[in-house]
Amino acid sequence: MRILGGAIALVLLMGLPVGAISVEPGTTQQSSSIAQALDRQEEKKQRADSLLQEGIQQQQSDQFEEALQSFQAARELFQEIGDRAGEGTVLNEIGRVHRVQSQYAQALDYYQQALVVNRAAGEPGEESIALNNIGAIYKNRGQYAQAFDYYQQALAIRRKTGDRAGEANLLGNIGAIYHQQSQYAQTLDYYQQALAIYRELNNRVGEIIFLNNIGGLYSSQGQYVQALDYYWQALEIAGERNDASWQGLLLNNIGSVYHDQGKYGHAFYNYHRALAVNREFGYRIWEGTSLSLIGSFYLDNGEYAQALDNYQQALEIARERVDRVREGSILLNIGYLHSRQEQHNQALSYYQQALKISREMGARATESTVLSNIGYLHSGQGKYGQAAAYFRQSISVFETIEKDSVATDQSRVALFEKRAHTYNSLISSLANQSKTAAALDIADRSRARSLAQFLNPSAENKPPTPLNIEQIKQMARDKNATLITYSIIEKELYIWVVDSNALVTFRKVSPEATSVPLRAITSQIRRSASAPFDVSGFFSQNRFRLDLQSLRGGEGSLWRGGPKDLKRAYKLLIKPIENLLPTQGSRLIIVPHRELGTVPFAALIDDRDRFLLDRYALSITPSLQTLHTVQQTQPTGTAAPLIVGNPTPMPDQLSDLPDSETEAIAIAQALGTTALTGKNATETTVKQRLQNASILHFATHGVVANSDRQIDDTWLALADIGTGEEDGKLTLTEIFNTPLNAQLAVLSACNTNSGEVTGEGVLGLARAFLKSGVPTVIATLWKVPDTETHILMEAFYRELLTGKTYAEALRIAQLEVRAQSPNPRNWAAFVVIGEGDRTLELP
What are phi and psi of 111, to 5 degrees? Predict the structure, then answer.
């Protein structure tokens, strides 16, 4: 019986009827019949395989009905011969045909059948394919949780079987889910893992794919230099391979980056190169992208007819390909086109279509943009209440994206720059409804968002809780200070004043009406305040001596300025709120915005030729939220102060600063410690003491990167002794990555509060120390003279040791230098950032 049972089992396995072999076991006739049956099965197997390949070729030629017929015939043959693996492969291919035609329900049904069959057949490779395909269906539907689950199951199989290429593919698919949801940190992690595997396998196509994907990730966050770097790498490989499909796609992407940078000639050239390639080789999906991008180019140039024509062609292709995400983006662009022509009803109709699709597909970045655009539409019609509601919705969606963004400062800042206009528009809408307190809430909420994320421990998995107006009022009471918040909104300047009695007052200033150009005034103020010569006679030249070689950081500007621009700046920034300010001797806490973060407020001159410093102790904060957070910080550094002065030799052949060395030695003696000077101020020694020092003081060169350079092109100079991996540069990244416990950081170097200006504030060295945990930073706005700085710093510490607050001590020190060297260049560069009302506590 066991033999007979085995025979039946064999026959069933091969897919033949039980009664097909009716002879007794062991006879010659039986052997002959079995051989014939096996031959027939092999023929059917070959025929099934042939039909499978024929169906695949038909599918690739878009002959979908013919492909389905071939696949169904192959499936029947595989079933007849009991080839479950073959059947599973066919089921996956049938599902693919339906998916390509966007028949997602049918596709999902066949993929699920394939999964069951492949699991039963013990075919992990085909099982993984079915899992991946099911994940793709859920992804196309915007059901990301389900897609993620199936992709992870498939990934586990690929890793178990050692299929590195399959593993890389699935890592990319998971990354794409995160990217679709604007979860940038996770996206980058998965894309980089996939890229590493493809490079390991020397798979050049896979390398192109993920260089492109990473470029797109950076582009979506506004990090254009990095985006172009990855795109150009990918295009080089595509050129080596003569791969036209990738060349067309990458040229589109490169043109798009140039477009976002305002380099329109470069953009237009690359768009048309891409369009020609895509049309020549029949790449419809990329042709649609080219058309859409060219449409945006024409739109930006006000050529609406050409823009609409290109958009409509692109929309037709997106719908033909059933590309819902791309369809939503094109509808958004057409809506904006109608908005530009003040065709409000048409614009709203297209926006609503785009909003519906973006929500269905979980495309949060597009959703946020659509909501913002609807807000602009209402605002332009004077419907400020409706506009504000849409701007709030847009910000709410954006902040869910923000919390999932790449957890690096540079990435967060770039991401916010793409949405800063929405915050400003909400502020404007609220102000136009006379909701000025609510507008102040949003103004502060929009400041230093990345810095607040890092400083506020509760913000790890959610945006930091913004201060409300009552908390802002309480801050003014507690500090017995006047809070001044500025916002640059289009061509207007908004100013809020919260006095020590918690009274909130709002002023709106039109710089054009006062003949003070807002965008230009900041650079003019800095030039006036930092000019080494005073040709007007306003500053006493016989009490001012200049030695250009003594400048910390080399020669400064030789622009021959005077008090004119300092008076104009006072007229713009202080005069509108002058009657709201307290009596002389009180403290002002200033929250600047964008370029205003580079203004030397202490040097502004009123109608009576008084500097603002004459009346007030000043401090700066990137936002009231930041100040609220740092004032709760209790520094734990108990080690001796770290005092660095004139490290030698310095990197990049920077010149010696002898007065810096004298300064450091004198300050160290006053604080009861020893300064690190000359060759002793090495990078290794400084880093060993940096984290636990109670006070940090750097009297050295400061180097600030241009906005188009990398973050680590900004650094403080240390001794470059040429050993190990040291380069003598304490960079922004190194500061960011070192938790600091000092109560005070004094950056007695050039330009330490200079850098790229964004909605986040000034991205310089001072901000790096704040981010790393130091509640108060003394920094500089320009290249400062060595001798006067030495005098100012000694006076500053002398006053601190008498119990003065940081803001009071700096004011007294600045006034002391000014008495001998009246030109603001010699004293006005120094600013208190963060907590200005603390006093020094020696360990």
Answer: -65, -40
Q: For residue 300, count other CB atoms closer than 10 A to its CB.
A: 14
Give the Å distances, CA to CA, from 395 to 392, 531, 547.
5, 42, 51
Distance, C-alpha 251 to centroid of its chain: 23
Q: For the segment 311-348, what is each residue's pLDDT rounded down to a tens digit?
A: 999 999 999 887 888 899 999 999 999 999 999 999 99
Q: What pLDDT, on a 0 to 100 scale, did the predictor assign at position 688?
A: 92
CA-closest candidate to residue 467, choices 631, 634, 635 = 631
pLDDT of residue 198: 94
Q: Nearest 5°: CA angle at 149, between 147 and 152?
A: 105
Instruction: List Cβ neighbours of 699 (8 Å cut-off, separation of 6 or more).
Output: 643, 644, 645, 646, 657, 660, 661, 663, 664, 667, 748, 749, 789, 790, 793
Least confident of 375-384, 480-489, 545-554, 808-817: 545-554
Burial label for 299, CB within 10 Å (0-12, 13-18, 19+), is buried
Exposed e or buried b per residue across 492-502, where buried means at least 16 C-beta atoms within 10 angstroms of its C-beta: bbbbbbbbbee
Tokens for 91, please give them: 């089921």
In this predicted structure, the answer to whether residue 707 has a pLDDT above a threshold of 90 is: no
* Tens-digit pLDDT profile for residues 626-665: 898 888 878 888 899 999 999 998 888 888 888 889 989 9
Containing H/E element for 832?
Answer: strand 830-834
**DSSP states of 701-742:** -EE---TTS-GGG-EEE-B----TT--SEEEHHHHHTS----
Rounded CA-CA distance 210/258 in Å is: 20
Residue the block writes with tokens 């007819």 = 305
Token pair, residue 834, equals 């963060």
Written as six digits, the tokens of 629 are: 């957070």
Q: 712-743 pLDDT, tens per residue?
A: 578 888 998 776 678 888 888 788 888 899 99
CA–CA separation, 645 vs 614, rounded Å? 30
Token pair 């007007």 is at which residue? Answer: 536
